[in-house]
């Protein structure tokens, strides 16, 4: 049996165990001073599944992603990545887990002083030291082609449109072949056509790589297009999690209010 087969078998066993979630968040609490932001959040995402996390501004969506990546620590509750609780992991162990997680921050966080090519090459330079320069260059071209940005290698981030910056951010997030993808507002600030293109790209990538994806958005249309399930945050909790139709049929007042205003 090859190592890959072995891992696949282990995953299958975990699945039969009910432990198939790539990401499992349980009873997560996070406050800043006296401000309670997350007050007992729970959610799970499996391989091949896209969960949209919705909510009004300030409901803690970005904080939730930062807790899942381990950039911030929860006050209580747990974050499990492929069954492993990330609390109390040493930095190098957390680093290993993070390599399998691609993320795109809300501000598309490209390095402004680096070209498109250098931005996408960055994670490879740091985590794929065995790659030769030409292998890395080929991989960067492949990644940029994947997101429809081939031919823009030498451009600086300041020369790109908002949608193009998101694409480059996505290419960089995919560089280490993650099995978990976390996207914070991938369509925010984009016009409807560019948003729809990014949605299509996310769907294509998901089809191709079958990652476990969490996409934070306050764009209901985008969530409906890309996600298998949606979770709405309000008052520090997940007030509803289900399909778009489940949200539409909900009697919960804040769900109805969110849908009406979206
Ligand atoms: N490091 C921090 N220190 C203090 N307060 C913080 C910190 N990070 C987030 N907050 C607060 O937590 C709350 C939730 O912030 P968060 O960025 O998660 O909101 P959000 O749901 O992502 O909003 P948006 O839709 O506008 O991006 C906000 O009131 C914010 O000010
Ligand atoms: Mg946010």
Structure description:
By secondary structure, the chain is an alpha/beta fold. It folds into two domains: 21-100 and 180-189 and 212-262, 3-Layer(aba) Sandwich (Rossmann fold), CATH 3.40.50.300; 101-177, no CATH class. 42% of the residues lie in helices and 24% in strands. The protein contains ten helices and ten strands. It has helices spanning 3-16, 61-69, 91-99, 116-127, 133-146, 162-174, 192-209, 220-226, 244-248, 253-261, and strands at residues 21-32, 35-46, 50-55, 76-81, 84-85, 101-104, 180-184, 212-216, 229-234, 237-242. The strands form two sheets. The chain has a six-stranded mixed β-sheet, with helices on both faces. The protein has a four-stranded antiparallel β-sheet with strand order 2-1-4-5, covered by helices on one side. Strand 1 (21-32) and strand 2 (35-46) form a beta hairpin. Helix 5 (133-146) crosses helix 6 (162-174). The relative contact order is 0.16. The site of adenosine-5'-triphosphate has 12 residues, from helix 2.
List ligands, each type once.
adenosine-5'-triphosphate, magnesium ion
- Global outline: globular
Widest sheet, order of strands: 6-7-8-3-9-10
Distance between the termini: 51 Å
Output the structural class: alpha/beta
Short description:
By secondary structure, the protein is α/β, with parallel strands linked by helices.
């Amino acid at each position: 049996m090859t190592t890959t087969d072995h891992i696949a078998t282990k995953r299958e066993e975990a699945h039969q165990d009910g432990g198939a979630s790539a990401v499992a968040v349980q009873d997560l609490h996070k406050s800043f001073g006296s401000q309670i932001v997350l007050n007992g959040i729970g959610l799970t995402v499996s391989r091949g599944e896209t969960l949209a996390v919705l909510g009004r501004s300030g409901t803690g969506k970005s904080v939730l992603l930062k807790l899942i990546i381990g950039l911030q620590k929860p006050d209580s509750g747990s974050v499990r990545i492929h069954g492993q609780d990330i609390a109390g992991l040493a930095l190098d162990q957390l680093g290993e887990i993070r390599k399998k997680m691609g993320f795109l921050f809300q501000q598309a966080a490209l390095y402004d002083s680096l070209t498109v090519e250098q931005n996408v090459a960055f994670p490879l330079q740091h985590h794929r030291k065995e790659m030769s320069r030409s292998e890395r260059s080929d991989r960067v071209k492949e990644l940029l082609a994947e997101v429809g940005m081939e031919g823009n290698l030498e451009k600086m981030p300041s020369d790109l449109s908002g949608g193009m910056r998101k694409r480059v951010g996505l290419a960089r997030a995919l560089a280490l072949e993650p099995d978990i993808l976390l996207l914070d507002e991938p369509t925010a600030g984009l016009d409807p056509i560019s948003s729809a293109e990014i949605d299509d790209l996310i769907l294509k990538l998901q089809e191709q790589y079958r990652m476990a994806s969490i996409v934070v958005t306050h764009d209901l249309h985008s969530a409906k297009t890309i996600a298998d399930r949606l979770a709405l945050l309000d008052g520090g909790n997940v007030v509803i999690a289900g399909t778009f139709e489940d949200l539409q049929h909900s009697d919960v007042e804040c769900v109805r209010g969110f849908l009406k205003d979206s």
